Amino acid sequence: MYQVKTYNAIAPAGLNTFTADYTLNQSEHPDAYLIRSVNLHTETLPSSLKVIVRAGAGVNNIPIDQATANGTAVFNTPGSNANAVKELIIGLLIMASRNLIAATTYSAQHTEADISQRTEHDKTQFNGIELTGKTLAVIGLGHVGALVANAALSLGMNVIGYDPYLSADAAWNIAKQVQRAATLPDAVKQADFVTVHVPKNADTLHLINKDALAAMPTGVQLFNYSRLGIVDNTAVMNALATGQVAHYYTDFGEPQLANQSAVTVTPHIGGSTIEAEINGATQAARTIMTYLETGNVHAAINLPDLNVPFNAAYRFTVIHENVPNMVSQITAKLAAANLNITTMANAAKHQIAYTIIDVDDLQQPQQADLIAELSKIPAVSRVRLLKRGSVE
Questions:
Q1: pLDDT tens for residues 5-41?
Q2: CATH of the domain at 327
Q3: For 296-339, what is each residue's pLDDT tens digit?
Q4: Is 254 a catalytic residue?
Q5: Number of domains in the chain
Q6: Rounded distance, CA 310 to CA 276, Å?
Q7: Looking at 87, 180, 206, 254, which residue is catalytic?
Q8: Cβ neighbours of residue 204 under 8 Å, at least 6 residues apart?
Q9: Which of 36, 227, 315, 320 is an active site residue?
Q10: Out of 98, 206, 268, 286, which one is annotated catalytic?
Q11: Which of 109, 207, 353, 369 is the 20 to 30 Å CA partner of 250?
C-alpha cells in the first residue's frame, strides 16, 4: 500500500483517481506528497518520501536541492492550467483594447440623474481599438504561449512568437501563421501588445528589462502572466512614466505596482479555474502512480526522462550522482548476486543520473540485502525495488 500526503485543497476528482493501492493522509511516513501552494522550504522531507508532485506549473515552493539529496523525484503538471491562462489573456486583451476598466470605473462613479446625457458627452474618452489587424508578440511558445498565439490568430491579430528553446514537439501545436522571430527585440519591435509565457529560471530572470522595453514601440501594452521576476518591474515603472509602456497587466503584485493607474494587478488567478484545478489534480495523481509503480520518469524537475517498458518480474531504480563508474558499480552488485539483467537504461540530467535495471529471477531473501548493498555505493541517494503488478 502506498501512502500519499496531501497539502492544500486538492480537487476531489484528482484524489478519486488513485486506485485502492493508495491511502491518503494516514501515515507519518508518506511515499508521496501531492501539493499546490504550500511552502515546503521550512520542512524537513521524510526519508520515506519518494516523489513530490505539484498540481500546477511553478515549483518555487519546493526545495529542489533537498529533495534531490533525499532521493525524491519532483514533478509539476505542465499544461494543466494552460487553457485557463489563455482565456484570461484573451479577456485582458479585449479589456485593454476597449478601455473597459476605465470605462466601468467611470460608470460606477457617475450615477446622477443626467447620466445619459453626460455619458454621451464623455464616452469618447474611452474610445478603443479593435484587435483585428493589431500585432501581438508572444514571448514563450510552450503550453500557454502556443494556445495564446493560436487564439489571437482567431481574433484576426498578427502574431509574432519568440522562443529560443522551442522543442520540436511543442512546435506542432503552433499554427503556421505565427511568425517566428530570431531575437527578442525582433519579436517586440512592431508589437501593439506583448505577453510573456516563459518558465522562471536563471536565463529568464528580468528577461523583459530596460533594453527589451526600449525595443518595443511607444505605447505598447505589456502582460506578465508567467512568474514574478521575469519582468523587471522597476524598468516597467520607468517605461510607464515616459509613456513607452501604456499599461502593464500582471498576476504578480509588488508594493511598487500598487495604486498605479497604468498598472492592473490581478491576484494570481491565471490558472484559477475549476477545470484547471481538476486537470492539475488528476494529472498529479497519475504522475504519482506512474512513478511509484513503474519508476518511469517524464518531465521531472530534478531527474532525466527515462521510460522503459516494465516487462520483467522485478525492477531496480537507482538515483545517483552523475559521476564515472556508477553503472558498473551497480551492475557488479547484481552480478555478485548471480542475477541476469534483462533490461538496463541510464540517463543523466545535469549532476543527477537515474538508472533502471530489470531482472526476472530474484529470490525473496536477496531483496533486502541487494537494496542495502546498492544503497552503500557512494553517490547513491535512493534505491527502489519494484515488482511488476504489485505495490512495494
A1: 999 889 999 999 999 999 999 999 999 999 998 999 9
A2: 3.30.70.260
A3: 999 999 999 999 999 999 999 999 999 999 999 999 999 999 99
A4: yes
A5: 3
A6: 31
A7: 254
A8: 198, 230
A9: 227
A10: 268
A11: 109
